[in-house]
TrEMBL record:
Keywords: DNA-binding, Transcription, Transcription regulation. Gene3D superfamilies: Homeodomain-like. This is Helix-turn-helix domain-containing protein. GO terms for molecular function: DNA-binding transcription factor activity; sequence-specific DNA binding. Transmembrane segments: none annotated. Pfam families: HTH_18. Signal peptide: none annotated.
Length: 246
């Protein structure tokens, strides 16, 4: 299985080769390069316009050819922003979520164009904010490493306090105590929250069954996944899909 770093480099290499073969105008390239500044300024309107009007010039559902170009452009925007931000705000924790976002774009259909532009705008702003909130303000290095590990293993059914503590070579009680002190929630609650939040992308943009999504994020049954989803999102997976999917 490829590591997070290998996945990232592979996607970057693919996008570089495609970009070199396409006629991407200078203004569009400048748009890509401005995304990190928009994230810092929390300029949602301009960021949305970049996602919405990149790759197409008209309203309505894009053709298959246009859609392929839009998907490529969206991934290029995300990769460009993450590269600009990696030294400053984006951490290895959020990089794992960025890989997931690239695959989510691959799963989208042309009918998701408008919703996808809104989703990616809000997701990038949220990732930037989480990079500040969940990493920059953490004083204990063990907690920072735990967060990185958790966010890179969200689909593992074995992800738990003990697994993370063993990986960091510290005791479970100690990790539990320092994690709660830094994050104001238990490490188990954090794991489930991140799993459920990540799973919403599949509910929005794929036709995967609830069972498949539950299994993909390491839940033993639809019941356990649904119970945890309701606890965290205050709705059921089916209702969430109905309210957010096209």
């Amino acid at each position: 299985m490829e590591s997070a770093e290998q996945l990232y480099l592979r996607h970057l290499d693919e996008n570089i080769h495609i970009m070199n073969s396409l006629d991407i105008d200078r203004n569009q390239t400048e748009d890509f390069q401005s995304v990190y500044r928009l994230l810092m300024n929390r300029d949602r309107d301009t960021l949305f316009r970049i996602f919405r009007f990149t790759g197409t010039k008209h309203e309505g559902i894009p053709s298959d050819e246009e859609w392929g170009r839009i998907q490529f452009s969206w991934k290029s925007i995300i990769i460009s922003a993450s590269l600009q931000a990696s030294i400053q705000r984006f951490t290895p924790m959020t990089m794992a979520q960025i890989f997931s976002l690239l695959f989510t774009i691959d799963d989208m259909a042309p009918a998701h164009f408008e919703t996808g532009a809104h989703f990616l705008t809000d997701k990038m702003l949220a990732l930037y904010a989480s990079g500040i909130k969940e990493f920059d303000h953490i004083s204990n290095p063990h907690v920072g490493k735990a967060i990185q590990l958790i966010n890179s293993k969200l689909k593992s059914s074995r992800l738990s306090l003990k697994v993370v503590a063993d990986k960091l070579e510290i005791s479970s009680p100690y990790l539990s105590a320092i994690f709660h002190e830094e994050m104001d929630e238990s490490i188990t609650a954090y794991i489930h929250r991140k799993k459920i939040e990540a799973s919403t992308e599949h509910l929005m943009f794929t036709n995967y069954s609830i069972q498949r999504i539950a299994e993909e994020y390491g839940y033993s049954s639809v019941t356990s996944y649904g119970r945890k989803f309701k606890e965290i999102m205050d709705t059921t997976p089916l209702k969430y899909r109905k309210n957010h999917a096209i």
